[in-house]
Amino acid sequence: MWEEEFEKYKQYPEYMQKPIEMSHFQIIYLYEWGHRILGRLSGMMYFVPYCYFLKRGSLPRQYLPLFHLTLCGFGLQGLLGWYMVKSGLNFELLKEEKAATVSSYRLTAHLSLALALYSSMMYCAFRLSPANMAAPRKRFTKALCTLAIGCLSTSIVTGAAVAGLDAGMIYNDFPWMGEGIFPPASELASLKPHWRNLFENPSAAQAVHKICACGTFGSVILLGVGLRKTQLAGFRHRLYLLTFGQVGLGIATLMSNVNIYLGVAHQGTAMALLTSLLYILAAA
Q1: Contact (Cβ atoms closer than 8 angstroms) between residue 268 and residue 277
Q2: Residue 198 and residue 158 in contact, taking contact as beta carbons nearer than 8 Å
Q3: pLDDT at residue 233 greater than cutoff 90
Q4: Which of 51, 89, 261, 266 is deepest in the core (most CB within 10 A)?
Q5: Torsion over CA: 128, 117, 253, 190 (sign)
Q6: pTM above 0.85?
Q7: Torsions phi, psi of 177, nearest 5?
């Protein structure tokens, strides 16, 4: 079985550019297989209860559009994942002498949709909690939390662009990028039109990710201050711990030349912070 699959893999650009041993191929294969199985299981775990509770009429009417949209999002996520992988199997990459990797545009879109699906489900779960439904709403706290979620989500999405471009492999220092905080403007805006730099220019992608991370840090600290005299004051310490941990892991990942374990921990902490912010948004 392994020999047959390995022979198929040898026909694709990635192997042609960078041959690997069978043992390395098996690791890649199992990661990819596991990712696809988990994706399908996630879809089924949403679809089955969705159908059951929809038939019983148990779903809150005000959230029905979001539930329907989330179901469509799962289907779209599967198609987007296939479309993303397809971009790395293009033989034109060999002719153009480009690295046989997936498109950073498609990778970013795939992660963005996953983020949206996760956020919608977690927010609904938290908001429909009896305690949160009965809690008084505070507009100022909700506004601060929405700002923090927006900054964090942007940081996560720009992190996908960094990963897609291997932008963490350059400027492995902090806070410096070369001789200054940021590289020269000519390097950051070397592509035209300028928006392409975010998805195709590693230096710009890393710089933008750092800026978004600073915005996230500041907005979460501001939210923590805003929570002092509310029923959610106890969440401040958790937010601070996750935020400082996230910053520390990000710096460590960069300075380690993107150690895979630190990178996974960095992304995992981002999701833990997002989950906490979604809970505060639902309860605020």
Answers
A1: no
A2: yes
A3: no
A4: 266
A5: negative
A6: yes
A7: -125, 90
